Amino acid sequence: MPFRKGTNKKTLYVPLRTKFIILFCLLITIPFVVIGTISYKKYTAGVERSTVELSDQVVSQISINLEHYIKELDRLTLAPLYDEDMMQILRKHRGAGPASTYLTTDETLKMNLFISSLAFDRGEIESILVFTNDGGIFSNLDQSVRKRWDRSMAEWMETIEQEDGGLAILPPHTAAYYTEPKQGVISVARVIREPYTHAMLGIVKVDLMPRGFGSIVSTVRSSGSGLLQITGKDQVVLYSGAGRLPDSRESYITASAESSYTGLKVTSLIPRAQLREDARELTNSTLVVSIVALMAAYAAAILLSSRLIKPIAHLQSKMRQVKRGLFLERATVTTSDEIGQLTEGFNTMIGEIDRLVKEVYETRLKEREAELLALQSQIHPHFLYNTLEMVNMLALQGNTRELSGVVTSLGKLLRYTVGHREQMVYVLDEVRFVEAYLRIQGMRLGDKLQAVIHIDSSFDYCVVPKLILQPLIENVIEHAMGQDRLHLTLTASAREEDLILSVKDDGLGITAGRMLELEEQLYGRQPRAVADAEQGGFGRILKGFALRNVHQRLRLLYGEPYGLTLDNTAGRGVTVSLRLPMNWEAMNNTGPAGDRQEEA
Questions:
Q1: Residue 289 pLDDT > 60, yes or no?
Q2: Per-residue b or e along 317-339, where b marks 16 or more CB atoms closer than 10 Å to that residue's CB
Q3: Structure pTM?
Q4: What are the CA-CA distances from residue 586 to residues 247, 271, 430, 591, 594 (Å)?
Q5: 538: helix, strand or coil
Q6: What is the pLDDT of residues 120-146, one digit of tens each?
Q7: How far apart are CA 109 and CA 296, in angstroms?
Q8: Residue 183: which of 171, 200, 194, 191 has the closest Cα?
Q9: What is the mean pLDDT of residues 536-547?
């Protein structure tokens, strides 16, 4: 015995096309992500290796350049030993302590000229200074350097004296012999000694500008924005290219080279994060191209899935049409596989259903439409009697203007209901008919009825069934009228793609018991025989059956969820609303029904 596996768990509905698309996209995306990740890691590792090799070459070249530069400064500090005039001046001031002889103008002029010749065309040199033993200072900067010095200004001299005539490289220190002391000065210096006796005659000192070392480093550019440092003895930092020290929280790729001649060490530190950022930039550019390729692949996947699912989607759309009652629809058979066989079976089934509908359902609809057409064209004599009686009274009273208005309005009612047989009219037609009807009732009721029509002109040419508003108005006049003045409002609005026509009053309202009875009559819960037996026509409202007729007409024409609804939730009165689809189809004749009637 065949059986189906039952389950109480509600499963999520996922269309077959969506499943195919997801499958194709996963098959494309997963390999791409795996390959991209591996390529990124391989590329990053390769960049690190290349960076290490390049950094080694860079620091080696910088170390060589730095060594050559220090040798030039070494020769520059030896220059005083080869100038006899300069040596004679230093011999005069060889005595320690306060000078017995002050610096003469001639001495100062000769020394300054000599020192200026050494500093000529050396923009990286801040100043060249010669310190005599007795406290004098010669410099190429007359205005900004003091003329005398003492030990409080020269704590750095101890380092120079320890070199015993060799070149000393001084780390950043304070130069207090300037008129405005300078911080962080880097210098090279040596002791000047008598060639034969080796007696100390003074000290020559070269102060470098901050860009001094930078000019050496700039000849060979390091990669990226890495940190380049030059350190001397005891790892004292002489120069930092970025103006800062390494961050202990970061990971660096380092390369270093140390000069045996100068003892200076050049170190390059490149943050690994920077390399990964460079790799990410390249990856991003590659990713743009890859995304375009992925989009093309996704489009191909969607196209392929559409071709696979298209016959099923076509059959599904035809089933929806049949569900709406369009039994003439047939699905096109495009394949000879199982889907094609299913399509052929569907067409056969719908053809049989269509035959049965024509024999049973459509026959019943035509009978119902005939009944409704007959009902629409009825004008109850009671309404005519009242109107004619009012015409007679106006004639007797000599109110010819009012009489003309009533006769004109009555003529419009007759032409609209009897003269033409259209089933569908414009909203403008219905509004004109209601206006004519209200003018007649207004003459009869006087100030007891106040009617207002608020319908925007944009709804004028929306197509609606004929005679669906007047029964609502007449129902209000017959059942909502009390001792007080009755206010009636007719409005139109749009809700999504539907048209809502509402008649609101502030009359007597509906009790809860009466509301239940009306719902029984409106929505078909009362036996059909009773409902049909008690129907009334235009001008005759019996127990709410005019409202039922309007509701049934809309249901027959449009089906669920269209029809009539009642709302008595307000403190006073009732709102009756009609919901029908927004239809802008052109009528058989151009223009509103009233215009067509006048032309006829």
A1: yes
A2: ebeeebeeeebebbbebeeeeeb
A3: 0.42
A4: 80, 75, 16, 9, 15
A5: strand
A6: 877 778 888 898 888 888 888 878 888
A7: 82
A8: 171
A9: 52
